[in-house]
Amino acid sequence: MCDIRTKLKYRTIVLTRMGLLPYLKTLTAHSVNGRPLSLSIQGTRAMAELMSLADAIAANVRDGDSVAFEGFTHLIPFAAAHETIRQGRRDLTLIRMTPDIIYDQMIGAGCAKKLKFSWGGNPGVGSLHRMRDAVENGWPHALGIEEHSHAAMANAFEAGAANLPFAMLRGYIGADLPKVNPMIRSVTCPFTGEVLAAVPAIRPDVSVIHAQRADREGNVLLEGIVGVQKEAVLAAKRSIVTVEEVVDALDPPSRNSVVLPHWTVSAIAVVPGGAYPSYALGYYPRSNATYIAWDAIARDRDTFLAWMQDNVLSGQPGDFARHARPRAGAN
Amino acid sequence: MCDIRTKLKYRTIVLTRMGLLPYLKTLTAHSVNGRPLSLSIQGTRAMAELMSLADAIAANVRDGDSVAFEGFTHLIPFAAAHETIRQGRRDLTLIRMTPDIIYDQMIGAGCAKKLKFSWGGNPGVGSLHRMRDAVENGWPHALGIEEHSHAAMANAFEAGAANLPFAMLRGYIGADLPKVNPMIRSVTCPFTGEVLAAVPAIRPDVSVIHAQRADREGNVLLEGIVGVQKEAVLAAKRSIVTVEEVVDALDPPSRNSVVLPHWTVSAIAVVPGGAYPSYALGYYPRSNATYIAWDAIARDRDTFLAWMQDNVLSGQPGDFARHARPRAGAN
Amino acid sequence: MTGTFTPTEMMTIAAARTLTNDDICFVGIGAPSAACNVARLTHAPKITLIYESGTIATKPDVLPLSIGDGELCETALFTVSVPEMFRYWLQGGRITTGFLGGAQIDRFANLNTTVVGDYAHPKVRLPGGGGAPEIASNCGRILITMAMGTRAFVEKLPFITSMGHGEGGDHRARLGLKTKGPTAVITDLCVMQPDPVTKELAVVSIHPGVARETVAAACGWALKFAETVTETPAPTPEELSVLRDIQARTRNAHKAA
Amino acid sequence: MTGTFTPTEMMTIAAARTLTNDDICFVGIGAPSAACNVARLTHAPKITLIYESGTIATKPDVLPLSIGDGELCETALFTVSVPEMFRYWLQGGRITTGFLGGAQIDRFANLNTTVVGDYAHPKVRLPGGGGAPEIASNCGRILITMAMGTRAFVEKLPFITSMGHGEGGDHRARLGLKTKGPTAVITDLCVMQPDPVTKELAVVSIHPGVARETVAAACGWALKFAETVTETPAPTPEELSVLRDIQARTRNAHKAA
Is C52 among the catalytic positions? Predict the structure, then answer.
C-alpha cells in the first residue's frame, strides 16, 4: 500500500537525482508553509493504508464520534461494527438511513448516544427490538434521535459529498416530521419563490463501508446496489473500507463503475464475508434466514446479551470468513 | 418498438380474457378521469419510438424551442444538428456547456436567437468564429447570450433532472459574471448562514443526445465520458437519442452503467457515425484533424456558407455512416 | 381452487389488478411487492418495477425479504445510487404509481408509521417514514394496501408520517401538489376510493363473502359507502396460482439462506 | 540537447517541476496538460491527473486535443459524469492543484478569458470561463501558465473571469475562501509568486538567457522582483526528451484522425 510517507520519500529521491531539489524546495516551500501540500488541503486526507480491521477501527473511530456505517441492505459492514463493539466505543452518534440489525446490535451494546436515521425496522421482518427498547425504555441508556425521511437523508449525504452546507428537496409536504425535528427547515427559490425543504448536510467524523474489492494501491470498487456509500465516504473526515479481497488489477466492469480512488479512503481492511448477514453481490447472498432469526434473539434483553457474548465479544474479524465465497466468475 | 397505444391494446385484451374488464374500468376510470393514467403524470412522457432522424426532428424540435444538443466532447449529436439545420428551424434557444463546432454551425446557419453556455471555444484549436461573428457583429443576426460557469451549468442540468427549480453551488466567488448575468443569484443556508450562488434549473423543451446503442424496447446505453447527457434528457420535456446501433440485448457492462430506460426518451433514431467529428467510444475515434480544419472553414463567412451547402444542406443523415465503425469487441 | 382464498390473498390480487403495463411503480416490501409481481406475471407483463434500493425495471423470480435483496439487482435493467433514486427518479416525477402501507390510516388516507403516543415519549416506536413522505407527494398516484381493524383505521392519527388528502377537499392542491395522492385503499375486506370532491374514503367494492357490517365494524370512523358498491370479483384460478407459486418460491428461498 | 530549448518548452518544464506525486491535479488543455504529463513521465509518476470531462487518474500516451478525447477515458481509473465532477470532486475539495491560463492577467493573478471591451458589446469575445471560476476557488492551490506580453499582463482587467488574489492582501479570506489561490505564475520568461502579505506577484526566478529588463518590458504593470531572484534551472536532457517525445506522438495522432 502506498502511503503518504512512501510517496514523499520517493519524490525526494527522484528530485535529488535530477539535481533540482534546492530549487524546488524554494518553490514549493513558499506555497505550503513547510508542510506537504496535500495534507493541508480541505477535504484531501491521508492515502489509503492497508491494515487489520482492529487497527483500522482503533485508529479512526473514537468515543464521541459521529459515524456512518452505511450500506443500503447490500454491503453492510457488520464485521467493522462488531469490532467497534469489541473495542468498547461509547457515545457515538450513529448515522444510517436504515439502522437495520447492525445498529440494533450497536445500540443494544451501549455504543450510541444518538441515532440519526430514516427507517428503523428489520426489513421484511418487523421491529428492531433493541432500538425500540432504547427509545421507549432508555435501555441500556437513553438514546437521542434525529429522524428524517429517506429522501432527506440521501440528499444530505449527497450534499456532504458535494461540500455543501445543506441539501434541499421537494419534501415533507403535509408531513408531521418537521414539527418535531428542528433540523428540518426551508429555503426559498430566488427565481420562482417556491419554498423547499432543507436539511443539514451529513459530514460524519468517520464513514465505514464494505466493498467487493480493492487493488494494491487502495482503489475500491463497489458494484450492484451501491446505496449512499460513495457519498458517505466522500462526506466524511475519515473512512474505513472493509473488502472481500485485494486484487492486482481492479478491472471495473464499466468505465463508469463506482470507484473510490485510494486518496479518498483512510484505511482498508481485508475481511472476507465482512458484510454477513448482509451480502456482497458476486460473492455471497443475503442470509434472509438470519434476519428472520434476529427477531427472537433481539426481543429479550438476556437472550440478546448472551448472543452478543457468544458471537461478538468472544469473536474476531476472521470469524466472518466462513460466510465468504470466492467471487463468481473469478479465475 | 412498444408505444403506448400497443400497450393499452395489450392490456385490454388480457383483461378481457380474464373477465375483469368491467370492474377495472370502474376502478381506474375514477382515478384517471377517463385517460390512461401515465399520460397525465408530470414528468412521464411517451415511450420511446424508433423513427427516422428526419421524423424525430420534425416531431420534436419546433421553432422557438429551447434545445440542448449535449455531449461533453464525446458523443456530440452532429447528425441531429445537421438535420435540424436542413429543416430550417429558427429562433431556437441553444443550451450547451461547450457550444463547440456543433453550435458554431447552427448559429452560423441562423437557427439560434439565444445561446446559454459556459465555454465557447474550439477545444485545443481556438475561437468559434461563427459564434464570435454573431456576438460581435450580429451576423447572420443578433444572438442573445446567457453565460455561466461549467459548474453552474452542470449543477443546473442536475437540478433540472431532479425536478428542482434551482441549483446551488459554492461558485462565482470574486468573479464578474454575476454582475452581468441577472440569472446568477444567491441563497442563504438556513443552518449556517453561508451565502451560496444560485442559478435556475435547466429544463429544455427538447434534449438531443447521441449514444452507443439501444435495445429493441428503446432502452439506451451510454458509456465513457457521459457528460451531462443523462441529466439533459431527464430534465427535458421531450428527447431524441441517435444511436450507433440497435441490439437485441443492451447488456450494460456494469449493473451500475449509465442507462436511460425507454420511458424517459421520446424518439430514437439509428444514425451510425452520427457523432462525427466527435466520437463514440468503442466505435470510432474523435477526428481531431477535422476540428483543426474547422478553424479555416469557419473563419470566413463565404467559406462557411459553401461548406454548409456542400456538407449539410445537400446532405442526409445516412452520410454519417461512412465515419462509423463496428463496435470494438462485438460479435 | 376459486372460492377458497384468504383475505390477504384477495387484498393482494385486488391490488395487482389496479396496475397496468404503463405503470412505473415504486414498490414497497410485503403486500405491495407481492401485488406488483402478480400483476407482472399475469395481466401486466410490461410493468416497470422500481425498488428504492436503486433497482430499476427489475423482474424478481422470488419476492425479496428486504428492499435490496440481490435478486432485485440481478434481474434489474440497471441500478442507481440511492441519492439518484430519490432525486432523479422519484422527485424527478418519473414514477406513475407508489405503493404505501402503514400502521394507521385516517379517513383522508393519511398514514402513520412513526409513533403511537407522544413523539418524544412514544408508547410504541414504529419504524418511521423511510421513503413514504416523498413517495406520497411525488408519485403520480398512490395505492395503499392495509388489513382492516379499528386500531389501524382510526378517527385521528397521533402522527402524520405521509400525507394522503390531508384535511380533505383541495388540501393537496393548496400545498402546491400536482400529483393525485391516494386513489385507492385496498384492504383485506374491501376496496375504498376517495370521494372526488371531499376526498373522504368510501367503500366501492366489498370482497366476496364479506358482510357490509363487518367492513363498517373494522373501521374506527363512521365509514362511508359509495352509492354503488359492487362485489370485488373473486381471484381467478390463474391469479391465485401465480400468487401462491411466487410465495412458495419465496418461502423456500428465504429458509435456505 | 540542453542549451537549445524554446521559451515555451522552458515554461512547460518549469510548470511540471511544481508538481509532486501527492498532487491530485485538475488539468486544462494546452501547456497545463503538457506540464502535468511531463511531471508524470519524469519525477512524479504517481501524480493523479483529472480532466473536467470526468476522467479520473488518467495516463494518456498522447496529449489530448480536447478535454475529453477518448485517450483520456481509455487510460483513466474511472470516469464520472460532469455534474459529479464539479460537485463531488472539485467542489468537494478533493483537488490539490488546479492549472489555469488566460488571455489576460493582473498583478494579483486574477484572470480574464471572457471579453476584451464592454461585456454587452465586446471588442473581442473570448471563450469564457468554463471551469475556471470554481477551479480558482475550490482547488487547494492554483498554478498559472501564460506567455508574457504587455497585452496579456495588464494593469487592469476589463473582466475578472476567475479570482486570483482579488484586490490583494487577505481578500480571499474575507470572501470566506480557505484555499490558497494562485501560488505561482509560470511564464515563458520567468516564474512569479505572490508576496506572502500583499499577494502582489513578484519574479522569483528568471529563465536561462533571459534579461531582467526583457521580463520587465513584457509586463504591463511595474513588475516587482523578489529580494533573491534565482536563475531557473535549464531543462534537463530527460525533461526535454520526454516533452518532445509526447509532443511528437501527439502531432502524429492528431494529424492521423
Answer: yes
